[in-house]
Specification:
Strand content: over 45%
Distance between the termini: 40 Å
Mean pLDDT: 96
Structural class: mainly beta
Low-confidence stretches: none
Number of strands: 11
Number of helices: 0
Helix content: under 10%
Largest sheet: 7 strands, mixed
Shape: elongated
Length: about 120
């Protein structure tokens, strides 16, 4: 029932900007942390940014001062504003969220299908 759907990816020139969004739908009781991961060809998936339900954030060193993660709890949506993009940012970006579908149940990690971000030189 629970699904995460990403949008906002695409092709952009270096130093350009994109904003990704990810919305959780389905049977949702509570959402804890929400994250953005990315995976480039031949590389391991890495955590890009994370945000707690209270708004605390964490970023990979490679994107600090360029990317901003935010969320709208009422909309069950997490955003990733990406500025000053570099070719090295090219990857498939995946939304991830820890979601409890019923009260007094554990949080489980759910994943979106990914959205391609390609940054040209």
């Amino acid at each position: 029932q629970v699904q995460l759907v990403e949008s906002g990816g695409g092709l952009v020139q270096a130093v350009g900007s994109l904003r990704l969004s990810c919305t959780a739908t389905g049977t949702i009781f509570n959402i804890n942390v929400m994250n953005w991961y990315r995976q480039a060809p031949g590389k391991q998936r890495e955590l890009v940014a994370a945000i707690t339900s209270g708004g605390s954030t964490n970023y990979a060193d490679s994107v600090k001062c360029r990317f901003t993660i935010s969320r709208d709890n009422a909309k069950s949506t997490v955003y990733l504003q990406m500025n000053s993009l570099k070719p090295e940012d090219t990857a498939v970006y995946y939304c991830n969220a820890d979601i409890a579908t019923r009260r007094l149940t554990l949080f489980y990690a759910y994943w979106g299908q990914g959205t391609q971000v390609t940054v040209s030189s």
